[in-house]
Amino acid sequence: MAPPAVALRAITRRFGSRVANRDVTFELERGEIHALVGENGAGKTTLMRVLYGLLQPDSGTIELDGRPVRIPDPAAAMKLGLGMVHQHFLLVDTLTVAENITLGHEPHGPLSGYRRAAAEREVAALAERYHLPVEPGAAVSRLSVGAQQRVEILKALYHGARVLILDEPTAVLTPQEVDDLFDVLKNLREQGVTLVLITHKLAEVKALAHRVTVLRAGEVVGRGAVAELSVERIAELMVGRPIPPLAPRAQREAAVPLLEVHDLEVRDARGLPAVRGVRLDVCAGEIVGIAGVEGNGQHELIECLAGLRPPARGQIRVAGQTVSGRSAREHAAAGLAHIPSDRLRRGLVPEMTLAENLVLGLQHRPELGRGPLLSRRALIERARGLLDEYDVRPPDPMARAAALSGGNQQKLIAARELSRGATVILAAHPTRGVDLGAIAFLHQRLLAARDAGRAILLVSSELSEILALSDRIFVMFDGRFTHETLPSRTDERVLGLYMTGRGAEQGVA
Amino acid sequence: MSAGRARAVRLLLPLGAPLLAVLLALAAGALFILAIGEHPVEIYGLMLSQSLGTGYGLGQTLFKATPLIFTGLAVALGFRCGLFNIGVEGQLYLGGFAAALAGLAMKSAPPLIALPVALAAAALAGGAWGAIPGVLKARFGAHEVINSIMLNFIAMALVSYAGHGLFQHATVRTAEIAPAAALPRLDALAPALRGSPANAALGLAVLVALAVGVLLFRTRLGYELRAVGWNAPAAEYGGVSIGRTQALALALSGAVAGLGGCNFVLGYKHWFELGFSGGVGFLGIAVALLGRNHPIGVIVAALFFGALSYGGLVINQRVPRELVEVLQALVILLAIGSQQVLERVARRMQA
Lengths: 509, 351
What we know:
The complex is a heterodimer. Chain A is built from 18 helices and 22 strands. By secondary structure, chain A is α/β, with parallel strands linked by helices. In chain A, a hairpin with a 2-residue loop joins strand 21 and strand 22. The longest helix of chain A is centred in the middle third of the chain and has 16 residues. In chain A, helix 14 runs parallel beside helix 15. The N and C termini of chain A lie far apart (52 Å). Chain B is mostly helical. Helix content of chain B is 75%, strand content 0%. Chain B has 14 helices and no strands. In chain B, helix 2 packs across helix 13, helix 4 packs antiparallel against helix 5 and helix 4 packs across helix 12. The longest helix of chain B has 33 residues. Classes of the chains: A alpha/beta, B mainly alpha. The interface between A and B is medium-sized, with 36 and 30 residues.
């Protein structure tokens, strides 16, 4: 039997006292698609950074085709036929596709400089060979996210990659783009390219990969053929315990609109219309989901509803009280909670303690102090309860928020916003960048809030989240709600079409 | 890493960086002293014994440290709200002038009225001067650094103009204020300080430091102020009016600076004199930096700079007085640098 194309053996890598990879062995057969799964912080990225020469292991060896190798830096990795497509693309916006792909190895004549035509020819041939449609002469800044990703993949192939590492490649894509990417990846495999897919979306593992390696807390906790493992089993391995199914839906009460939005128009930071006439009611005891590709006005809509951005036109009522045009504080006072999409910019003061962050927006509550004074004891006692209830780790009220992982920061914000006694909850990407276990927990919390009679407006780019939680769904495209539906009557594919503005034209109902 | 160790690092880091900066600066200063042929240990020993070892020297150090506590606190208050108040010099200057005007006006008032009125005048004048860049920032987004610097020059010119008719013949100072408005000397309480100009402004400085500490860390307003300073979008999200908070912070900063003018005017000379501030406002930036924008840190840093300043006078005959300025500059540079270095070390320890 041929030796594995890539073998990482007994890799251990520490960061100070934290062990990111402990004794990890990972083997890639030539021509397979291998999924590397695990929660955030499980050590997936560390392992791949070791393979790509971005990190050196403390111990362990790397073999390519049975030969031990040392990979001191990414240049060496490239020479050995390894390529990596990062989650955040490393492209120069102002250059063309061909210029980006050939960057560093540009074809040039003995006297002349860059030979544009030759470069574009080479890129076109490469794109043809791997069935990766790109336009070599187009500026990268004008490309869609999916096309930019194809450029990244081509760049790696241009540099001779035979093993391609993809770090969460679908995180930024629309469902249709995901389908296209899957076709591309299958095609690459047929051409003999070996693929590593770093992900935490198990549906993708099932759809694409032959084998899977599961990491938890830096150690391999499972590996095997995907065909022999159920999604539930892989999830259980990742989290370390069974994931409880979502609670059944409680009986809904008579519809009382708690959030009423009429004819709302909002401008973006450049003064251009971002929300163009939105009408919306969210009733007590329901979750309304807004699906959409990011940048179609969801952000401006939520910021306006939260009082952080003035409406250009229209009216917002929270629990019957007109708040449009008032300050954020008055919005909150009317009974509005807000889990913001950008937790580090909006949701937290990273340098402040957990206890202090848990009262952001509540700093004037009389029970938290006396007169102008804030009581430290009240803050800490409040924090202890909430940190425990929402399982924020470490549960140290005096720790700085900056010291928490992304998932724990998100739980901290959810703890604050879901406990403030609001009747309307705006939840923007409430589980972005959060571990599977924490996602399930946050989902249960949102459903519990709904069952307690809150009105919840959910914005998410995860369609599975929208479909799982919402009672009603709107698709937002180009500043408008272009489609309204029920989760029982739609699926990711249909929503995806409307998200790209194509649904109406193609007559999908 | 254990929570205990994390807490230890959290507490030690703010102490370590300034201490390291001071030690390194003194070491570098020693090289200067060696270079001019003097003995560093002897010079430093002389500075130390003269500025802290004698009652009179201690009094001088306290006197020099007093305005630095005020200006350090003023700068720190701005920093905590994310604002760089470089107008402290002018605010202190105007505060001193206002205190003198009030002191001159209250010839017949009893001390219980005259002194508080003079202090209030200083705080109001400084506060109003600080509020100008604050309001400009809140209303128009005009940068407070530029405006507060410019207002220093305007304050100087304004006082020179207004003082024209007030100054004693052929001098640049006013008449003496009413004795009722004067701050008592400390040697009345502690005879060991006899002869030194240390006065009750020091006690006031400590009280103001306490008040600033309570404001920043124990009040709702202070919470909002720090939130704006660290992450304004998050503060806005938390319902804080950023502009209002910034304007208020600069006004409070100016008021603290204005009170600093009382040390000289109400506590020492009992008159206002052109150019009395002599750069203590700018040195306040260094004090705040070294004191890590914390009231206790500011007091310690002000005492250090006070001792350095008086110690520099003592050794004047053996080494040039520029040595003190070099030391001050080195402390500032190293305070910034050592902070970065130690934070990196701490991160590595925690990682």
